Amino acid sequence: MTKEENISYWIESSDSNAVTMNNLFNSKNYDWSLFIGHLVIEKLLKAYYIKHRDEHYPQIHDLLRLADRANLSLTDEQKDFLDEVTGFNISVRYEDYKKEFRKNARLSLPKNILIKSKSSGNG
Known about the structure:
The protein is mainly alpha-helical.
């Protein structure tokens, strides 16, 4: 796969996941919407990394670490957002956390992910 094909692969995969993220959000499956939202951002960061750094992207899932390795210049707010999304992605793997999340119907984080992903032209 060429560098351009690799970048396109990650962007197209992210776009496909963004559709799923939106569908899950609209059906009020907020925990899964957020889980997929993490993938949307991760794949875009990997495309950016390949484009601006190296074709051998780091095989990590921590969004902030990935952005740092890609040498992205981020605001503190953006860093906090990536850190929060990564933290949620890890926490949601545990049923007790998902149960509490669903019970409290925390909407601020999924809405932020959707708003930020849509404002960057993905979804």
